[in-house]
Amino acid sequence: MAIDGFEPRIAGFLCNWCSYAGADLAGTSRMSYPSNIRIIRVPCSGRVDPLFVVKAFQQGADGVLVAGCHLGDCHYNEGNFYSRRRFALLAPFLDYLGIQKERFRLEWVSASEGRKFSDVVSSFTSDLKKLGPRSILSPGGRE
Amino acid sequence: MESLDKQIRDKARELLTSGAFACVMGYERATDGKTARPLFAYTPEEAERFVFDQYCTHNLARYLINWRDNKKSVGIVAKPCDTRAINLLINEKQIDRSKLYVIGVACQGIMEVGWGAPTEKLELRCNTCSEPNPVLHDLLVGEFKSESPAAAKAYADVAAIEGKSAEERDGFWQEHFSRCIRCYACRQSCVGCYCQECFVDELDPLWVGIKVAPAENTVWHTIRAFHLAGRCISCNECERVCPVDIPLSLLNRKLEKDGLELFQFQAGMDASVTPPFATFKKGEKLGTGD
Amino acid sequence: MARIGVFVCHCGTNIAGVVSIPAVLEAAKKMPGVVVAADDKYSCSDPGQAHIRAVIEQNKLNRVVIGSCSPRMHEFTFRKVMVKAGLNPYFLEVANIREQVSWVHSNDKEKATAKAIDHVMIAVAKVARDEALFPKRVPLTKRALVIGAGITGIQAALDIASAGHPVTLVEREASIGGHMAQLDKTFPTLDCSACILTPKMVEVAQHPNITLLTYSEVRQVSGFVGNFDVEIVKKARKVDSKKCTGCGVCWLKCPEKVPAEFNEGLGTREAIYVPFPQAVPLVPRVDLENCRYIKYLEYMPGKTPGKRPMQCRICEKLCPVQALDWEQQDEVVKEKFGAIVVATGYKTFDPSVCGEYGGGKLPDVISGLQLERMFNSSGPTGGEVLRPSDGTHPKTVVLVSCVGSRDEQRGRPYCSKICCMYTAKQTILLKEHDPEVQCYVFYIDIRTGGKDYEEFARRAQEEYGALYLRGRISRIYEDGKQLVVLGEDSLMGRPVEIRADMVVLATGVEANEGAAELAQTMKLSHDVYDFLTEAHPKLKPVETQTDGILVAGACVGPKDIPECVAQGGAAAAKVSALFSQEMLTSDPMVASVDNARCIGCLLCVQVCPYKAIDTQVLRNGRTVAVVNESLCRACGLCPAVCRPKAVNLRGFTNQQLLAEVNALWQ
Fold first, then answer.
1. Among partner residues B68, B205, B277, which is closest to C641 by beta-carbon distance?
2. What architecture is domain A10-131?
3. Using CA atoms, how far apart are residues A15 and A22, in angstroms rounded to an integer?
């Protein structure tokens, strides 16, 4: 059930070579998507320290997206394989701490997938709307 | 069969007499006459004070780092969980195996020693212990056990938390984290926390706010635990020393449990195995980003 | 003290039509450190750039944020403006408010404006933590290594050498020339392969800038662009190439005969041999597996089966210059190179795995390369096309295309590109060798892309009477002295049976043996078929992901001779361009290690995909990580795994990224 008027905040860490370019392509192709995401450019999904994700939640993110090149297509050959391992452990851990696993997404979006980027942001936004705001108890939670 | 104490004393004396060893670490009787405290023996005479029993709770591997750049060797009396800690330090190139003599003790379990008097209750780590034998030793004392009776219920308490709703988990941890006074005793007691400067002490960038507040405490505890992911050897010293009784072991063992399921990896079992974040398999299915 | 200027671009109406520029400017002025906020119709235009410069100078700005299109578009443009305004170009951040804001949120101007403000705020927070960065200059060794001396490698080596740079050309075989030396005539001009190749081979041998290392292999490659350290193994020939005159008396008198690899197993060669008469260098090598004297030396009573062979050494006795050197051992050469061209070529598909073509058991079913050797007047049959079974001239010949190409089941789904054309050529040559020959060609499609190729293939059919049948072959079997070929004519929709004297399989192109291992030595990537991967299939066809290492020719994928020559030349041009610099400039946005923080766990060393992190021992005896800035490609894996935050990535430092996260929502 969606809560009326709730606009989730999404922090997006996009790799420069694939996902950031994919987001640019969504723009070039005028593929509209919800404006809830704020984007931080990183060289590779492998650059994203779990600390940044935890800090983003602390800053009030309702959801965090980390996006990189498809497995095997990493600009740096293997960066996304490492980030996958890291976040495969972080996501259930955050869930365990009370930040539901639906609030964190690791996605592979290539430079040619403007459509996929727009779909990911749309579905993430609508999922977060259903989930509602983070608990007011937790850091970054809202009334 | 000779007593544990005698075997340890004989070996420690021999090591210290050889001249190649700077120190042998073990336990001696505390002033209360019942519990034990660490003993750092530098001379063969001091070695006569070594004891070992169910009150030898400290993980002495914590102190090995102090000898990292020493030219001489060190000896250590190590329980099974402590030997896993030694493996961790070898894997992370913090100690040189060739400059280390491990007197491994097959362990019968350790009794809880809280702030007050000693109890007759086994420590939590022993109730969830999966490896009752030293995984590494130069000399083995005590009786080798064929299996751990506690292994089956190693993660029962973790699973109980997992079974709660997100709201309940959030509430549970916020209640605990809000009590944290950020004394960092958990860090000081931890074998894996040997950074020259911890991220929490760093001022630029300021990862964790200086204010002792639930939001900042949460970041501290999340990252403290995650920095030990694939590294924590479940000695549970952090929880034992916590003055406000935060169940830190529930955090560490959640990560250990998931690490076992996802990467079939348990820290400290074998010093030659690459830790999970330093390797990957192309086709593996991890449930995130597959 | 940071004095930040924010410039917001209208991009005509692209941004201004959706985002409220006054609102963004108003908000920007209140952001920490911002002293001025201004707008431009087009920031990237000449007047826009001039305006930015003027505002920087008037307000003594030291950091700049530009809210405009994606940084992937104009970051470089604006960096140049910074330099012109006298600032370090790395004190600049671009806030993406076009591709990621106005173009995707045109339906809600209010929300688009809010997001644009946030993106500008994130950039302002980051720019405050930017550091001045300076590119490093590193020396380079102007000497190139070319691996593989087929036509591609020969061309590359000649072009680099002619540009005035020393080249070492390494070839695994005993002679240079590669596959082209095996061919008789080449399509579509039918000029003789040797006639156009051998002059180039001789030129290589005589070029003052080329060092030729044949019968040698590259064992190890380390280092980085401009400064590669390479180990090359010169395998023992057992013949002193300085003394040898190539007179040939040794191989003429050698009593041992083994199947000749150069002739694709047709005919024999000796145990001391040159692969073909025009070999460069014309220095024989002793085949250690088959030489009688070597066998005599290696005989171990009780372990080696059979009787001890006789000592032969006839070559040694007859050599007029005493060039035989039984003591010669493999020699390792270590050299420094500035650039490497990989041109290791291909091999052909082995058709013996194909049961339908007789599984390699029918003597008169041969491969296209075997037929080439028969055509050749210095080949095993002296230029006559003869059936291997009885030595007679075949009158009916069936040629089969796509053997090991476009074959999903055998794991070769790709087109080998050259077979259609060489099959057409072979029908013409067969007819020219013997006008009574009738050729049949089974094909899937006839692919003749290339200058004069289609005309050539048509000529094979129209002037030389080759009959083309569209379809695959189901079975070949022997019947008396002939072969019965069962197939299908899919255009007519009926089965075909042809009684043939000989069948020629147009075997496809495969990655060469050891290509994947060599790629791993150099950290190059390869595809599932072991063909090497170029940096970009269209725009960077000879570059690789590793700066300074180039790929050319059929090691990247099937190619014909003109393409190989063009790629060899292209790789040489890239090498020459690299060598035209006196010093190399390295990107300053790389990782660095803070020694005081580093705990020496070396997790970073383990994850670095470029082996760019080494260790060093400090004066106090501690081992810490150290980044080789020339190898670092700035992926940022190392700072992300570093617990004590000792490793940082310039341009994307922890300070910068954390500032961005903290600025996410105000």
1. B277
2. 3-Layer(aba) Sandwich (3.40)
3. 10
